[in-house]
């Protein structure tokens, strides 16, 4: 299974590195089609838009249809201007004024036409002037029915134009060959006037034609704003600049409908990436194999030699696989920046599930390396994940309630944001403000800092904030699938007001007090040798809950002094006593106790021999009918350091009750005897207790017992000598039987 999980981890990581390249290769992007992966740049990449989009841009510009606005007021202005000329001349005639200098100045100012006094004199004295001017106005009206533009040079190569008419909604396409320029319109006007009024004296007709041509205006005007807007849209669609992408930057988001620019961008990226794949693929695959291999070597060799628990191989490998899939899904589906990856959920989950900081740190380092390979193989990204992960390991320990996850999430978010800020800051520009020593320009320094602030910093903080709540969401799934308990789940069972503990107190108060004392001793030992003190205390609380079924058969609950075992055959007594382990396992499972706690209930006696009953049976029955296995607990032996500590603490607490006038020397002798007997019996053969641990256990338990049994001043009424105790078979009686284990407690 372990080899299989390693193969899956390696395969998924390699696939995560190259899934986008494979997608683009087998499903080439096409315009007007959706893309079903977010394509991100795996390394620094520059897209030359000018080169890639030049042909498309020129095609779009060549196909662009200019927009003109039809102006009825321009037609009216032309006619009104010529009518104003007619009115000015008519008014001069009616007044019968002498001298035309004033009229010449008026026409020059009003129509920008300079007529000599002689020509004006002929015009004013012409008898049929009104008919001439009205006829020219009619011709001008007919000319203005055409679509007249000022300059047709901008329409070279164009077939059509768009005409906007303010009197109607929308635009109308009009062929370019149906337009006439202002110069051509003036030429047509002059030709028609001269053809129709050929008999008029040239000295009269020429000035009038000159005025008529001056008043003629185009009725189509180039719409500068609308054309600039439409051309700007084309330029935005086909820009002509060099765009740089950093590792992890989004090229095209998930489910985006591709346009021509996107297709050209992806084609350029594919061409750029293809050259790097053949160069980097061997190194990336080697790095993945090396990191996974080194991680397994660390767990199986280095960690085992210096650590007391068997490393959770399957758990951490599955967690690495799960994290890889989740984070790759984030990158492949969302358009959010890479710095928003909730990578810190990996170390948080390991810590929350009661695994050591050493395992969490090693897993974080390996996970950061693997994730950075498919997120963006750059040292900034690797360091970003590493710093955030290490911060999560440091601040996630010791949490008791789920709400407390907010503080580690805030701290991790701050570390993430600070890391990105440090990476984006232009430190050369900052140092230039201080070197050489001079007055610091605060305005320049503020501008430098503002330039370093970006949305990436905000997303880095969000990634840290989200990691904690996301880890809490995944915790129940991991607890169910691995049949384990998180720190938060275990903490609920620290409450002595739980119904099961109240039931134990009411049915077996002596057992309840025994559990409290064992919890104190076990926690003290756990702190000394680095075991899980929270699990030890909870295990001590619940390790004897099976005694609730028959509390009177256990000496700590026999307050009246009557012992029902006196009337029972040894095998029957053993059967009843052993049952408290099975009852405890059943009660714990029915009450929903975590499996790690139920395991402590099952293992806290291991396969120990109940020597007292075995010796009685051996004396009472033929040896051929006595089997030692019938007088042993079913086990299993302690599988963890915590189970071994609980076994020792349970025995020490029971044996300490039988000591009269306890002293440190007696405590030390008793604890050593208990440990030696269990070592000889092989009870610690399946857990990782070292000789150094055993030495610490003896020292710690002796100190704890001495503190608990400290002497006090005896009151006078206590000086009376107590009557001698009745000698019987029960543990705690001072019978001097060398074969009886003083640590045995019914």
Q: Can you walk through the features of this model?
A:
Strands 6-5-3-8 form a 4-stranded mixed sheet. The protein has a two-stranded antiparallel sheet with strand order 1-10. β5 and β6 (171-175) form a beta hairpin. The protein is mainly alpha-helical. It has 3 domains: 2-26 and 33-39 and 260-487, no CATH class; 67-227, no CATH class; 497-719, Hypothetical protein af1432 (Orthogonal Bundle). The chain is built from 28 helices and 10 strands. The longest helix is centred in the middle third of the chain and has 47 residues, at 260-306. α15 packs across α18 (455-482).
Task: Give a brief outline of the structure.
This protein has 746 residues and is mainly alpha-helical. The protein contains 28 helices and 10 strands.
β-sheet strand percentage: under 5%
Chain-averaged pLDDT? 83
Number of domains: 3
Outline the biggest β-sheet: 4 strands, mixed
